[in-house]
Specification:
Elements: E1 19-26, H1 35-51, H2 62-70, E2 74-80, H3 82-89, E3 94-97, E4 102-105, E5 109-110, H4 116-119, E6 142-146, H5 154-171, H6 174-182, E7 187-191, H7 196-200, E8 206-208, E9 220-225, H8 227-230
Parallel strand pairs: 1-2, 6-7
Antiparallel strand pairs: 1-4, 1-5, 3-4, 6-9, 8-9
Helix pairs in contact: 1-5
Length: 232
């Protein structure tokens, strides 16, 4: 990954071995996914990885998951189509499907040690649109509120939605996590608009970007509003 002019000064967390969580979105020329659906699929993919039995205890991914979460929780979204997508699907990981989006998440890899099947995939320039406005959010659904003030590519926004979902996961109790997992991780991603200031001041999990790519360090990008957190 190239250095960015937005990168912050090193912190003690940066002294630990650095890992990144790879996510790959399927982006066929003839049928690209809707932007909001892709963001929601990416967020669910992160949660599915966190909640998978292979990611905890003595599971085969548990150690690398711990190593990744002990440092910065970096996520990088790349895109694939055709044979690239099929090759990515042969690597260990989990595919999450939305209404129009398919996102595959993989166990964390060293920052400079991507599998060759993923290293060759494009990371920049992923742009998606919503053909129609997203539907109303059902009551009781967790919502990842995106900042109305920060412009991001679809790939960057997918990573930020994943960060928000992960921060919410960390704040939940074991029982609350289990209930969310058993329900299939229902969530929605929406732009906050007028509520943004209220949300950022409400004590909910708030993503502040490290500033490695696209946006300035410290930018507030996502607030995670989970029903269990609102009830406290």
């Amino acid at each position: 990954m190239s250095e960015s002019p937005f990168q912050t000064e090193p912190t003690p967390r940066d002294e630990a071995p650095q890992f990144v969580l790879p996510l790959v979105v399927r982006l066929e020329k003839s049928a690209p996914p809707a932007r909001t659906d892709a963001l929601e699929a990416a967020a669910r993919a992160v949660l599915v990885m966190l909640g998978d039995e292979r990611s905890v205890g003595d599971g085969e991914w548990a150690q690398v998951m711990r190593d990744w979460q002990d440092a910065r929780i970096r996520k990088v979204v790349r895109r694939a189509r055709g044979a690239e997508w099929r090759r990515a699907g042969e690597l260990p990981g989990i595919t999450v499907t939305g209404k129009s989006a398919e996102v595959r998440v993989f166990p964390p890899v060293p920052l400079d040690g991507w599998p060759k099947e993923l290293a060759k995939l494009q990371v920049s320039g992923t742009e998606l649109d919503d053909p129609e406005p997203p539907a109303d959010v059902a009551p009781g659904t967790a919502v990842l509120w995106m900042s109305p003030d920060v412009e991001m590519s679809a790939g960057k926004a997918m990573a930020q939605a994943g960060h928000g979902a992960q921060l919410a996961w960390w704040e939940l109790s074991d029982d609350e996590r289990a209930a969310w997992r058993e329900a299939g991780f229902p969530l929605a991603v929406r732009t906050a608009d007028r509520r943004w200031r209220e949300l950022t001041a409400g004590g909910l999990p708030l993503v502040r970007d490290a500033g490695f790519t696209e946006i300035a360090p410290g930018s507030c990008t996502v607030v995670a509003e989970h029903p269990a957190l609102l009830a406290r």
